[in-house]
Amino acid sequence: MKMYKSAILFADRKGEELAPLNEQYSPALLPIAGKSPLEFWFEYLCEQKVEEVFIFVGAHSTAIKAQFPSGEHWGFKLSYLLSKGEELPQSLVERNASQLPSDYLAARADVVPQPRNDGSLSNCFSCDDDQEMSVSTLQSLAWGEMKNGPQTPQLLLNLQEYADITAQVLASKLWCCTPRGLMLDDHKWTATPEFSAERIEAVDDAIYVGRESIVDRSVSIKGCVSIEANCFVDRGANLNNAIILPGSYIGQNVSVDNSIVAGSLLIDLKHGLAQQISDPALLSPIDMNAALTRTENSERFAAAMLMLLSAWFVLPLALLGRRKGSPTLSRRTHRSNRGSRNYAIELELLSFNTRWTGINRWPQLVHVIDGDLKLFGTPIEAVDQAPEQDLALAQGVLTPADLHPNYAFDDIEMQLWGLELANTKRSFLANTLKGISAMTLPKLGRKKTALES
Fold it and tell me: How many helices (DSSP H) and strands (DSSP E) are in the chain?
């Protein structure tokens, strides 16, 4: 069998068959269990020891180049060539003949590889010095001919086929398409330590959980469910045969059934309907530049114990010390850590009305238990408040100013110290110790500044 050192891929589909997802994704970049059709092709070409790959890209060229700037990871040189979109492969090759090799493998990279039992792919072709054969091969790769010709699987002809392909990949029915991450059980994959083997065992059907995604323990998962990277599925949500695309928030008690979610876009596969959800408490995009802030179970437990142990004296003080003309308990609209600054999720912040700040904040421990706030973090922000820096939301009941009231924090210091206190990469105990050390570190910094001046 002849070994080819070069390959030419065509990834210039407009993706109109996949509307409305084509507005956000090239067909070649559609997320499938943490990867994409183009990445599956790269992995196959790597196994074939290809040394140079040329890709024809169209309207989504910027996104494709940004995601795959080079082929170094797969051990080949990667070069991009432009197409007007769904041009005839033969025309593209003839127009760029001076840059292309004469012997190469050819395939459409905006469809999923179609495996044969013998280890080859039915939609990957060889082209060589036989000009007549090469012309015929390239003609068969024209998108217009492929979509209107004999129906073959894995072409991504519609959104339902996209969902079916995702299920096949999770079920390991396509040997050339392996999900990103680890297989913890049959048809169960995870790319994040947040979703442990213990939790995988509680799921009966196929599942994928992507990098940096958070799935609350109370979430119900049935059927084939793919949760891509940087998603947050909140308490009480129900997922049944669902695809959650990267950077999507699923709100509390929201049901997603036979649907695709892309930020605030809900696509109902059963009825063929797509709708933008305007309420960010239900569905919303997550700021991909900001890390998700999760309230750990240890924090929730600590907040519950604090409320339980202190209620006997806090509640009488709240009643006796209530300011005249004010209700005992007030509610104000603020941001929840479940959202982001660009896509805020509102929180009805509870507080007592007394002359004691500590007593006033006591009801806010409820928000820690609910997961809307951290125990330690940055100051709580109003929905319309413009931050000094575009940092992650990590608001806490206790802030750096509470831990060291005599230090004059500026706004940026307050944000950075608060983020350090809320650091989700450390345990709650480590953050508590960090909070204690924060009571002395600013003071030392203040003294040093005074000496230097």
Answer: 14, 21
Which helix (DSSP H) or strand (DSSP E) does residue 182 occupy? Answer: strand 182-185
Which range has highest mean pLDDT (116-130, 259-273, 385-399, 437-451)? 259-273
- Tens of pLDDT, residues 320-340: 999 988 899 999 998 888 777
DSSP 29: G
Sign of CA dihedral 89, 95, 100, 102: positive
Residue boundaries of the structural domains of the chain = 6-152, 180-285, 297-452
Which class does domain 180-285 fall in?
Answer: mainly beta
Instruction: Copy the structure tokens of residue 263.
Output: 């930020």
Predicted confidence at residue 449, as pLDDT, reads: 38
* CA atoms in the 13 A half-sphere facing the CB of 17: 19
Contact 228, 213 (CB under 8 A): yes
Helical pair 428-438 and 411-421, crossing angle rounded to 10 deg: 140
Give the relative orientation of helices 297-320 and 428-438 as an angle to the nearest 10 degrees: 50
Please report the sign of the dihedral spanned by the C-alpha atoms of residue 27, residue 32, residue 38, residue 44: negative
pLDDT of residue 452: 36
Instruction: Write down the architecture of domain 6-152 according to CATH.
Output: Alpha-Beta Complex (3.90)
Residue 62 DSSP label = H
What is the C-alpha to C-alpha distance for residues 430 and 432, in angstroms, rounded to an integer?
A: 5
- pLDDT tens readout for residues 182-210: 988 888 999 987 777 778 888 889 999 99
Mind giving me the DSSP string for 311-337? HHHHHHHHHHTPPTTS-SEEEEEEE-T
CB atoms within 10 A of CB 71: 19
Fill in the amino acid letter for 326. Answer: S
Angle at alpha carbon of residue 72, lines to 66 and 73, rounded to 5°: 85
Quickly count: other Cβ atoms within 10 Å of residue 174's Cβ. Answer: 19
The region of weakest confidence among 18-32, 125-139, 280-294 is 280-294
